[in-house]
Design a protein that fits this description.
alpha/beta, 8-stranded parallel beta sheet, 50% helix, globular, binds adenine, binds zinc ion
């Protein structure tokens, strides 16, 4: 039997706030003497039936209220890296939402220092490496995003790049050209969510106006065959999150997911978990779901893992090491 949890993989679309499991929400609330608006774990879990992206974001932003100290961010990150490592994640490029914490009065240094310590301890314990990408909230202003980027620079936050998340439709890429230009000047990598609920024009816009190197989700690109050809020819990776797309009703069911179309068109597709505490699975669960649904072979799975290595911002040396690990895994599957 294929052991997807041992397939070495890289996770490149993961919101650390989306790894906040219900038990940790209750633990942290108790520690901080906070009242939660949920009667029990079961009551909280009952709210995980989402209608769309917005209905999810409301719960996601409400729950981050329990993250108050640097230690909370460390604990969250360490818990994620332990869980990810158990599922074969060898490297994770982790998103965080500074504005979701600054707006509650949490100091940026507490957020950043806590995350960095979690990454350090996670690597020491599991060997899984990680890097941080600061995401800006698309439903807030471009000026605020630029101000937050300057604050990150001022505190010497060791981020490798910037991203764009939150409410997509109605918040065009054009709001964020200045912050992406500044990130480029700083030598940072640039990614953005697009084509999750918005149409293919949202994907073209983040490519043309923000100069992103990969697109988070991007599933609605399939509505524009010329865009799909461009993604394939320019080898612009899509960070696809199948269970997220199902839970947020981007697709009616996994059977209708566009992953096979994108693979067939030659797009560099990668499999990721987005907000695993909310969507029913970590990286390996997402691989397993598409493997089952689309009868993927072990070499198809290895190819998806190779794609995640290619799409990452790792050094060529580390990429070569991980590609070698994937090939070793593949050989073991056929023995
Ligand atoms: N923030 C956390 N998860 C997100 C998603 N799937 N789309 C947009 N913003 C997000
Ligand atoms: Zn996301």
């Amino acid at each position: 039997m294929t052991d997807i949890a041992t397939l070495p993989k890289v996770e490149i679309h993961l919101h650390i706030e989306g790894t906040l499991e219900p038990e940790l929400i209750f633990d942290l609330a108790a520690r901080h003497d906070m009242n939660l608006p949920y009667a029990s774990l079961a009551d909280l879990r009952a709210r995980y039936a989402f209608e769309d992206l917005q209905s999810f974001l409301e719960l996601y932003y409400a729950n981050v209220a329990v993250l108050r100290t640097a230690d909370d961010f460390t604990e969250l990150t360490l818990a994620y890296l332990r869980r990810a490592a158990a599922g074969g994640v060898r490297h994770a490029e982790i998103f965080f939402d500074p504005q979701a914490h600054l707006s509650r009065g949490v100091a940026l240094t507490d957020v950043v220092d806590g995350l960095v310590e979690g990454c350090r301890r996670g690597e020491a314990e599991t060997g899984t490496t990680s890097a941080l990408i600061a995401c800006f909230l698309r439903d807030r202003s471009g000026e605020e995003a630029l101000g937050v980027l300057e604050q990150l620079v001022a505190v010497k936050a060791p981020i490798i790049g910037i991203g764009l998340d939150s409410t997509e439709v109605g918040n065009p890429a054009s709001k964020f050209t200045a912050v992406y230009a500044r990130a480029k000047e700083l030598g940072l990598h640039r990614v953005a969510h697009a084509g999750e609920e918005g149409g293919p024009e949202y994907v073209s816009d983040v490519l043309d106006q923000l100069g992103v190197e990969r697109v988070d989700h991007g599933v609605r690109s399939v509505q524009d065959p010329i865009l799909v050809r461009r993604l394939a020819i320019e080898r612009i990776p899509l960070t696809i999150c199948p269970l997220s797309n199902v839970r947020l009703k981007g697709v009616a069911s996994l059977a209708e997911h566009v992953l096979p179309q994108l693979i067939a068109a030659g797009v560099v597709t990668t499999i990721n978990s987005d907000d695993p505490a909310y969507f029913g699975g970590y990286a390996e669960d997402n691989y397993a779901a598409v493997a089952g649904q689309f009868a993927l072979s072990v070499s198809d799975l290895a190819q998806l893992a190779h794609n995640s290595v290619e799409a990452s911002f790792l050094s060529p040396d580390r990429k070569a090491t991980l590609d070698h690990e994937i090939e070793t895994w593949l050989r073991l599957q056929s023995t």
